[in-house]
Write a structure and sequence with these properties.
The protein is α/β, with parallel strands linked by helices and about 725 residues long. The protein is built from 20 helices and 20 strands. The chain has helices at about 25, 50-55, 60-80, 90-115, 135, 145-155, 170-180, 185-190, 205-220, 235-245, 250-270, 415-435, 450-475, 475-525, 525-530, 545-555, 590-600, 610-625, 640-660, 690-705, and strands at about 5-10, 15-20, 130-135, 160, 305-315, 320-325, 325-335, 340-345, 355-360, 365-375, 380-385, 395-405, 440, 535-540, 560-565, 585-590, 600-605, 635-640, 665-670, 680-685. The radius of gyration is 34 Å and the shape is elongated. It starts with a strand and ends in a 7-residue tail after the last helix.
């Protein structure tokens, strides 16, 4: 039984288009007997543009590459004689790449059409070698330059003219169209008479081919193809169909496109057509995990307001941006109608208020403006004008008032509201949970338990072996470069894990300290400190911070964790998450306030082995003690494990030798080396193990109690 797509086109004309498969039922059944073009198991999950281009280039037959080069050479020669539209030198390699993409697109068209039940041979024809009688081209000369008019008028009416990239007279013009789209059309007006655009009396419109072509060029699946636009996302297909002039008023075409999108995606995954899903022009690192347990999130403090102006200039075919920062134009269609997509710098809750005002500077009038799509990331606007060819600048102003979905740190955009929020949060929590102060352990987030590091070492070795095996088996240049890069990165990570294994003793040491302090909190503090409670605090992270927290919590003691925002987190399943070891958690917007909270509320600041962050914290603490912002008689800094910190002490000795640090009373007490001066001559001291660190810390806390200094005042 034959089924049909039925509906009206943009002119209100009813059509019945044969539907030969149901994509949800048949899928790619009709091409399962054909060998896939690409074996996706051989390729990485994400590839750069350069890698991806190498991949597709390797799949194009040499005779096709030769033909493309020949066409370009002929086109350049014709342009020199004024018989073709020239392409600027800086764009000529892009032109060549565009023709490569057009050829693989034509090959994909053959596969997709077959999958849909239409055996139509389009390889090397679609967008490249399709033809049209000259008599039809002569009726479409209204938006053309003289060289094009002269060429078309010199051809006999019934002569077939190639209206694709394989025509040397048209090839450069078709490429240049992607830069301007509006105004002079030249060869593009000829190309529109192909059966996947408008068709003609001899070659009527093929709705199925038109829909497949739309998916490739207008989503777009291809990256900087004939339309010179970046690759789009499948998730935007409905938005794009509401904007594009060929689909927005054509419900029939939209219905066909939805079915084709299902098949198209499956064919990509099977490697039967170009696997555009492997292309990632902007590969980014994963966002670090952390858990946000701030007591409140004020909408006032997360408010977002931005106003801007976007203007399109037809003279240079460019959009310009004005007004406040915090937004940008990420996509635009400089056709009829104009459209632009605005991307916010911050993701917003979707109930934001948007106001748009059209602007026109000259004879061109805006007939209508419509926000055709909006979401948490931005919006798309459509501008209809009364001119087929714009003669003046048009655009729009907009104002957005909303609430940020996530509080994302950006130290270049510190505002007082964020700082005030942090200060209030720190005061609210610590005045209750650390009323009489606390001790803080600064340490590494990378040094972990030995068993965990051994497991990672084994995993990295397997990963390295797998990468090396793949390298030995592949001959694809793009994958060879990709694998070499990942082998180098994995070897570096493996080497680091081996170093961390040697440092895992510091994790054990820290856990031991946490257990000792936790037992002291639970069993002795209430009596020894007259009912006062001095909890342990860490930076709230993994590694040695986790060891401290885990040790204290195993003794049922309270642990405070103060961290800063590093990203978005899983708030649902926290099994195995380091953050659960701290039963009181605070997340700050600002890194500096987090550090101040960790240091300023502490009677003792201990430094276990760590990296940049721990070193920063160490010098900040020493500086505060040196300058008397922290009183030496009330605050103690202790470095734990002398062998680790010795290079730092050597550096401080160097500073003293240069006179930049006062050697008289800014010293570090090191047992058996520099330990015979009065207490006020030292800003810190060094111990060799967790037990000594515990005893020194406990003694100092009890000394403060007996001298009536165990407070934050």
């Amino acid at each position: 039984m034959v089924d049909y797509y039925e509906g009206v086109d943009s002119n209100g004309v009813f059509h019945r288009v044969e539907k030969r498969i149901d994509p949800l039922i048949d899928g790619t059944r009709l091409v399962q007997g054909d060998k896939p073009i690409y074996n996706l198991k051989d390729y990485p999950a994400a590839m750069s543009v350069q890698e991806f281009d190498q991949l597709i280039l390797a799949s194009i037959p040499q005779e096709v590459l030769d033909k493309i080069n020949d066409v370009i050479d002929q086109a350049n020669h014709l342009a020199e004689k004024g018989k073709a539209e020239p392409v600027q030198d800086i764009h000529k390699e892009e032109w060549r790449r565009g023709m490569y993409l057009s050829w693989i697109h034509s090959r994909d068209m053959t596969v997709i059409m077959k999958c849909l039940g239409f055996n139509k041979q389009l390889t090397g024809i679609h967008d490249l070698g399709e033809t049209c009688k000259a008599k039809y081209l002569k009726k479409r000369l209204g938006r053309a330059e003289q060289w094009y008019i002269d060429h078309i008028m010199s051809i006999d009416d019934n002569e077939d003219v190639i209206i694709g990239f394989y025509n040397p007279n048209f090839s450069g013009s078709l490429y240049n169209w992607g830069h301007r789209k509006m105004g002079v059309q030249n060869a593009m007006d000829a190309h529109r008479l192909s059966d996947h655009h408008l068709g003609n009396d001899d070659n009527p419109l093929d709705y199925i081919e038109k829909a497949v072509n739309f998916i490739n060029h207008h989503i777009p699946r291809e990256h900087y193809g004939i339309r010179h636009e970046a690759q789009g996302n499948w998730s935007n297909i409905e938005e794009i169909m509401t904007v594009d002039h060929s689909t927005r008023n054509n419900p029939l075409l939209r219905t066909i496109c939805r079915d084709i999108a299902i098949v198209y995606q499956q064919l990509e995954k099977e490697g039967r057509i170009t696997p555009w899903q492997l292309l990632d022009p902007n590969i980014q690192n994963a966002i670090p995990r952390n858990i946000d347990l701030k007591p409140e999130k004020s909408n006032v403090l997360r408010s977002y307001s931005v106003a801007g102006t976007a203007l399109y200039n037809p003279d240079n075919d460019l959009w310009s941006m004005g007004g406040e920062s915090g937004w940008r134009i990420v996509e635009s269609t400089n056709g009829d109608p104009l459209s632009a997509r605005i991307l916010f710098a911050e993701e917003l809750e979707e109930n934001y208020v948007l106001t748009v005002t059209p602007r026109s500077y000259g004879p061109s009038r805006i007939l209508s403006n419509q926000v055709v799509h909006s979401d948490s990331t931005g919006f798309r606007i459509l501008l209809d004008t009364d001119d087929e060819v714009l003669n003046s600048i048009i655009g729009f102003d907009f104002q957005v008032e909303g609430v940020k979905r996530n509080v994302v740190p950006d130290d270049r955009t510190i505002v007082k509201d964020k700082l005030i929020e942090d200060l209030h949060a720190v005061e609210n929590i610590l005045s209750h949970e650390a009323e009489f102060g606390m001790i803080t352990v600064m340490c590494s987030a990378s040094v972990r338990e030995l068993s965990e590091l051994e497991n990672e070492k084994a995993r990295r070795k397997l990963e390295l072996d797998s990468l090396k095996n793949r390298l030995n088996q592949t001959r694809i240049d793009a994958e060879i470069d990709f694998l070499k890069y990942n082998i180098e990165k994995t070897e570096s990570r493996l080497a680091r894990v081996e170093k961390l294994i040697k440092s895992s003793k510091y994790w054990d040491s820290a856990k031991s300290f946490g257990e000792m302090w936790g037992q002291y909190c639970v069993n002795e503090q209430e009596k020894s400190l007259g009912g006062r409670h001095i909890p342990v605090c860490t930076g709230g992270g993994p590694g040695i911070m986790h060891a401290i927290a885990l040790g204290a919590r195993e003794k049922n003691a309270q642990v405070i964790g103060i961290d800063s925002i590093f990203g978005n987190d899983n708030r649902f399943d926290l099994s195995g998450d380091f953050s659960t070891a701290s039963n009181v958690r605070l997340r700050c917007n600002d890194f500096a306030i987090r550090e101040a909270a960790l240091i300023n509320y502490s009677h003792v600041v201990l430094f276990w082995p760590g990296g940049y962050g721990t070193s920063w914290e160490a010098f900040e603490t020493l500086c505060k003690l040196q300058t008397d912002h922290l009183r030496r008689q009330r605050t103690k800094a202790i470095f734990v494990h002398r062998e680790f910190w010795q290079p730092l002490f050597d550096y401080i000795s160097h500073l003293m030798e240069q006179g930049t640090v006062n050697h008289f009373d800014d010293r570090i007490r090191i047992a058996g080396y520099d330990d015979n001066l009065s207490e006020d001559r030292y800003v810190a001291e060094v111990v060799d193990d967790a037990r000594t660190a515990f005893e020194v810390t406990k003694t100092h806390i009890e000394y403060l109690y007996t001298t009536n200094n165990l407070s934050l005042r």
